[in-house]
User: Fold this.
Amino acid sequence: MLYVPTAGGRANRETALDMRETKDGRLALLVYKAPDRLVACCGDAQPSTLKPTQAGVR
Assistant:
């Protein structure tokens, strides 16, 4: 399972992912393997969603 930061509420059953800008201007999607890591990096008020991964993917 992956914990993925989101941009808030849902509209029409879709979740907006929270993309972050890197220092060099590119966009990145942050994902975390544990909820405590998401909180440590994004804060405890960060909305998020839980996404399953395929077996064998690391």
Notes: The chain has one domain: 2-51. Strands lie at 2-5, 19-21, 27-29, 48-51.
